[in-house]
Amino acid sequence: MAVPLVVGIDGSEASLEAVDWAADEALRHEVPLHLLHAAADQEAPDLVAAASERVRKCAPAVRLSSEVLYEDAASALIGKGRNALALVLGSRGLGDLAGLLLGSVSLAVAAHADCPVVVVRGGVEHGHGRFGSVVVGVEDGEGSGTALQFAFREAHVRRCRLVAVHAWSVPVGSPGPPGLSGYALQALRRPPAQVLADALRGPAQRYQDVPVSSEVVEGAARQALLDAASSADLLVVGARRRHGHVGLQLGLVNHAVLHHAPCPIVVVPQI
Fold first, then answer.
1. pLDDT band at 10 (very low <50, low <70, confident <90, very high)
2. Among 223, 201, 221, which Cα is nearest to 212's?
3. Which uninterrupted H or E stretch holds 14?
4. Which whole-number Å values give the CA distances from 57 to 4, 25, 63, 262, in the listed order?
5. With bands split at pLDDT 50, 70 and 90, how would you rate the model's confidence at 225?
6. Closest to 253 (Cα-Cα) out of 137, 160, 175
7. Which long-range contacts (CB under 8 A, 24 or more apart) does 138-142 make?
8. pLDDT band for position 100 (50/70/90)?
9. Residue 117's closest CA among 87, 95, 145?
10. Hey, which of 87-101, 121-135, 148-162, 171-185 has the most confident mean pLDDT?
11. Is 0.90 surpassed by the pTM of this model?
């Protein structure tokens, strides 16, 4: 049985946008779509029925199932994520305060799920492949490996280009010969362009049909990713496992893009 794509619904407009995005994604990957509502109210059957009808109208070919769980929403979604291709969520739920950039459930699930978590953000133009690109953030080390595999697969099924972004900066007080530029100082360790090329080599060989653009940016990673995402259909970032703790290490960059990304964003746990 194929592993499903799971989307959380709560009746909010944001969750309905997540349902629309997830239906398209399920068609791309040819996987079932599972609607999940978790709450302590009795309106769930109506919510599920309305969301199911929405899917049947916009994506009738999708294999659809649904479920209602009367428990904490974040816990229910994290549990379902153990056997899901990905979890898809709206950026804000019904219970979140006006003015919040990201709902509490979405943030909790992104920080603890075992599978990729998609938070559907941005306007309509970012949801239908208008830009023809997937952006992925690449860091030095092994933290981006799983995110890169996910991003390449997305670009492959969408038949679009992949934009790989690696941002770098020289820490204040870094030792080095006087008179060298920031790039030269960084190159004494490992050239940023080499970091990006090395990370891309393996997955690019597997997905040879995906055109790849590489961007090496001097500056803050969060701003580089947000700038690149302004003309993207999807932004993909990795998240490290926390040593000795349950869940992921969502650092400043992850938090910034989850709260401010202008397009749907995926947080992919490192395996």
1. confident
2. 201
3. helix 13-29
4. 19, 15, 13, 27
5. very high
6. 137
7. 138/164, 138/165, 138/166, 138/195, 138/196, 138/199, 138/200, 139/166, 139/221, 139/238, 140/166, 140/168, 140/190, 140/195, 142/270
8. very low
9. 87
10. 148-162
11. no
Residue that has been written with the tokens 């992104």 in this structure: 110
Beta pairing class for 265-269 and 133-137? unpaired
- Give 116-177 as a DSSP string: -EEEE-S-GGGTTTSS-EEEEE--SSSTTHHHHHHHHHHHHHHT-EEEEEEEE-PPTT----
Q: Is the pLDDT of residue 94 over 60?
A: no
Tell me which residue of 126, 102, 51, 109 sits closest to 267, measured CA to CA.
109
CA 96 – CA 76 distance, rounded (Å): 18
What are phi and psi for residue 174, nearest 5 degrees?
Answer: -65, 135
Those residues whose C-beta lies under 8 Å from the C-beta of residue 79, and which sit 6 or more positions away, are none
Give the orientation angle of helix 73-80 with respect to helix 104-112, to 10 degrees: 30
C-alpha span between 206 and 162 (Å, rounded): 14
**Largest interatomic CA distance in the chain:** 69
Of the chain, the end-to-end C-alpha distance in Å amounts to 23
